[in-house]
Amino acid sequence: MVVCGLACWRCRWLLPLLLGLAIIMGIIALAGRGWLESESAPYVHQASLWESCTRGEDDLNWNCESLMDYGWGRAAAATYLVGFVILVICFALAVIAFSVEILRFNFVRGIGGLLFVVAAFQIIGLVIYPVKFAEDIPLTGDNMFSWAYGFGWASTVVVIGCAFFFCCLPNWEDEVLGNIKPTYYYSSPERAPYLN
């Protein structure tokens, strides 16, 4: 006998787990020095969300300049950081919401709304950075927006997906709480002759 049905109550920790993954990717983006890098040798440029570093072709030491001296640098860092802080708050609220036996679905939908705010802040920061960086910072050689910048976008994509799931979860309230009867399917007619 096979029981078919949505086992969401047992899988309820999947959404907070995804938010935790988005937080880890956000930490990598905030701490990583790979927002912009030289694409090929000689590697003469490297930048993070906070600073831009250059060096000569034969030099081993990086000369770093803070991006917080630029208005757009402060704006990009602030918007991404505000989005990250709200994301951490949403993660804590999601853990609390799914720990309670009686799930408050309007509370879950509110978390989804906050996640859309997180995505908006992060997207603003991720768009400001490359546009203004390319305008104001002199670049030498071939450069690319690299792995840490990619982690920032990956975090944002996960947040957008979770926001949709959190907003839509109340539509399946009965399935999540297990309030519907499961449908049983039998493998052979001999075991269930009354189905014929």
UniProtKB/TrEMBL annotation:
<dbReference type="GO" id="GO:0005886">
    <property type="term" value="C:plasma membrane"/>
</dbReference>
<protein>
    <recommendedName>
        <fullName>p53 apoptosis effector related to PMP-22</fullName>
    </recommendedName>
</protein>
<dbReference type="GO" id="GO:0006915">
    <property type="term" value="P:apoptotic process"/>
</dbReference>
<dbReference type="InterPro" id="IPR004031">
    <property type="entry name" value="PMP22/EMP/MP20/Claudin"/>
</dbReference>
<keyword id="KW-0472">Membrane</keyword>
<keyword id="KW-0965">Cell junction</keyword>
<comment type="similarity">
    <text>Belongs to the TMEM47 family.</text>
</comment>
<feature type="transmembrane region" description="Helical">
    <location>
        <begin position="12"/>
        <end position="32"/>
    </location>
</feature>
<feature type="transmembrane region" description="Helical">
    <location>
        <begin position="77"/>
        <end position="98"/>
    </location>
</feature>
<feature type="transmembrane region" description="Helical">
    <location>
        <begin position="151"/>
        <end position="172"/>
    </location>
</feature>
<keyword id="KW-0812">Transmembrane</keyword>
<dbReference type="Pfam" id="PF00822">
    <property type="entry name" value="PMP22_Claudin"/>
</dbReference>
<keyword id="KW-0130">Cell adhesion</keyword>
<feature type="transmembrane region" description="Helical">
    <location>
        <begin position="110"/>
        <end position="131"/>
    </location>
</feature>
<keyword id="KW-0053">Apoptosis</keyword>
<keyword id="KW-1003">Cell membrane</keyword>
<keyword id="KW-0963">Cytoplasm</keyword>
<dbReference type="GO" id="GO:0030057">
    <property type="term" value="C:desmosome"/>
</dbReference>
<dbReference type="GO" id="GO:0098609">
    <property type="term" value="P:cell-cell adhesion"/>
</dbReference>
<keyword id="KW-1133">Transmembrane helix</keyword>
<dbReference type="GO" id="GO:0005737">
    <property type="term" value="C:cytoplasm"/>
</dbReference>
<dbReference type="InterPro" id="IPR015664">
    <property type="entry name" value="P53_induced"/>
</dbReference>
